[in-house]
Amino acid sequence: MKRFISVSILILSLTLIIFASDGFSADEKIKVAIVDLFKTINESEMGKKAKSDLEGLIKTKQASIEEKGKKIEALKSEIEKQSTVISPEAKKTKEEEMEKLVRDYQRIVSDSQAEVKKKEAELTGEILKQAREAINKIAQEGGYSLVLEKADGVVLYFSSSLDITDKVIKRLNESKQSEKKTETKPKSNKK
């Protein structure tokens, strides 16, 4: 259903652009480009750094989760070994302690997943924001009337000559490099 709505909106938009009487004259050509945002996110320097940062966060969270899991397994093993020699009250206390550890473990897993998801959205959002800026500049410089996102099911076919994804990635990488240069420039000491 969502795909159908997206396709319908795309077709309607294209129809309006093509047939708008005051938008284009008969001798003006509509210049269209395609951008693969998935590729842009994954292959740009910003995207690679974001992926690396995210993997580091995941690794840290996994270590914490594994540590809690080991504590649960150790306590479970201890309860099994001592079940015949400890009193029912002591066994109940150990089982309650294990239940608490299991709840903590589940909470940590849930919190970690939420934190990773939030961080991923934050990083992706920043990349998309800068990608849109780069796309707008490229579209204006190239005289494009329309830039579409290459999404499965929305754009069914396009000539590879319309694809400006590599230009967008290059522009993003260049903007990231120029940001690094301005950050590392020593500030002059004017008196």
Write up what this structure looks like.
This protein is mainly alpha-helical. The protein has a single domain (28-175), classed as Protein Binding, DinI Protein, Chain A, CATH 3.30.910.20. Helix content is 72%, strand content 4%. It has helices at residues 2-19, 37-43, 45-82, 88-142, 165-184, and strands at residues 32-35, 146-149. A two-stranded parallel ribbon has the order 1-2. Helix 3 (45-82) packs antiparallel against helix 4 (88-142). The longest helix has 55 residues, at 88-142. It is elongated.
Main features:
191 residues; mainly alpha; Protein Binding, DinI Protein, Chain A; 5 helices; elongated
Task: Offer a concise description of the structure.
This protein is mainly alpha-helical and 191 residues long. The protein is 72% helix and 4% strand.
What's the CATH C level? Answer: Alpha Beta
- Number of spatially distinct domains: 1
The coarse overall form would be elongated
**CATH fold annotation:** Protein Binding, DinI Protein, Chain A
Helix count equals 5
Per CATH, which architecture?
2-Layer Sandwich
Q: Helix- and strand-based class? A: mainly alpha
Strand content: under 5%
Average pLDDT: 83
Q: What are the segments in which pLDDT stays under 50 over at least 5 consecutive residues?
A: none
Strand line-up across the major sheet: 1-2
Distance between the termini: 66 Å
Helix percentage: over 70%
